[in-house]
Amino acid sequence: MPRLSELTDPTAVANAIDEFHTLGRDAFLSRYSLEPSRDYFILADGQLVDSKPILSVAYRNQYPDRGLLPVSDFSGGTGGAVRALTRLGFTTTTPALHQPPILGTEYRSRTEIQSVYGGDKVAGIIRFPGDAVVNVFSDAEGPYADDPPTLVEPFGYRGEGLSGPQRLDRGGNARLESAFQAEAPVRFWYRPKGEPFRFLTWVAVLGRAWVDGEGQDGLPRPEIEWQLEAVPGQDLRTWPADIRAAQVDSLQTVENNPQVPEARPNAPYADLIARVEQRGQGRRSTGIVRTDYSRSAAARRAVLDRSNGRCESPRCTGMPAESNRRGEPILDVDHVQDLALGGEDHPRNMVALCPNCHACKTRGARPTEWRRELRKLAAAAHDAAMMNSSGVQ
Ligand SMILES: [Zn+2]
Asked: Where does 96-259 sit in CATH, by number?
């Protein structure tokens, strides 16, 4: 049986590459009825040359009486074709290493991205062959109800895994976790509804939280909410200092146990509050306003639970008829007193507002009046929810 290890003559490989260049890729492949490579290539004269077809033909060049080396007899990856080519003195590469994705380039579909960069199916969170960079894909029409990304503030990205509890230790979430731990830049790809996919921006992974979610099977489950923020580029030296500081901070406080109240579907209000207050304690104060994503997930969840899906403003003139991407009422969770102005990250300083009331509070002519009223309301709603919550326990 012919074996790849019998290929020992670099000239046989060089001649195959010459023939490839002379004929052109398509003619070379069709002459020998060989399939194109997808992941690993030889880099010859600055061009990508299909690795397995070359090895197959090189074998015939070295042993003319034996014919082509069957491509089914060896792997095209690092253990097979790549190792043999390195042994024979050739340079190998992958499309993503040779020509990394360029910001803004459009691709009609995930299949097109896969045909350019190789690798397995382009799912939620992947690496391209040979490339250490993690890629996050967000699709406005995809199975995940991701919020559209914003380039000016942190945004959420729901973890990978359609049904059953999401896991940090495997698949895409494990990949993104490794980027988070390494504080490494991540490519963020986005496809708006009815438009092509684009490598939209580099992002930093600011942190993550376990939150209460629902799988495609309709069952409640813990999900990972990743917090991403756009950064100016791949070079960490260009990143704003507060982004690096937020990463370092959240690496120290990150929650690995998915059984936290904010990830339990029926967690009582009081449990969520205990969680908010517990995480608030004992944190070092460095003078920089930082966000603890687990804590704010618990606080947001408590306020939304408390609101029963209704705008909490006493001046509300009506909720939007439309629901959000998750089929829930459209509500913003607002800090009555801004965090940046020293407001507390606690449900007694937070209200659920419909978009109209939120706009009135932040952009209306009487912000002081709105704040005063809402502060009272938030405190009262919080007390009432605590009473109810402890009453049923
Ligand atoms: Zn309202």
From this structure: 2.30.280.10
